[in-house]
Design goal:
Helix 1 packs antiparallel against helix 2. 22% of the residues lie in helices and 41% in strands.
Length: 102
């Protein structure tokens, strides 16, 4: 089966910022993404869990699979939202089936 090169972008961000991030991605031409709840983790401030968070909803992970040539546009849109908030952006090389979907 033939595979096609793609980029997997994962953005961990505070749940209240989710709609602002996904709107920015959509305006940048991203046609698909998946949103997952983040149950907990550890970072510069130490360990945390969703249950221990003050406020609404903790963190979410927004995952996008895109063509490599569209990466810079996506990162510019994501960083415009993430730069002022808690968040992590990672980019991984991957391969996909059915490249026409990306």
């Amino acid at each position: 089966m033939q595979t096609h090169k793609a980029k997997r972008v994962e953005i961990i961000i505070e749940a209240p910022m989710q709609s602002r991030l996904t709107s920015a991605l959509t305006r940048a031409g991203v046609t698909g993404f998946t949103i997952l709840p983040v149950l907990g983790g550890s970072g510069r401030s130490g360990e945390w869990t969703r249950e221990g968070q003050v406020g609404r909803g903790g963190m979410v992970a927004v995952v996008c699979l895109i063509r490599p040539e569209r990466l810079e546009t996506l990162l510019d849109a994501a960083f415009a939202v993430v730069e002022r908030h808690i968040g992590v952006v990672s980019v991984t090389d991957c391969e996909v089936l059915r490249a026409e979907r990306f």
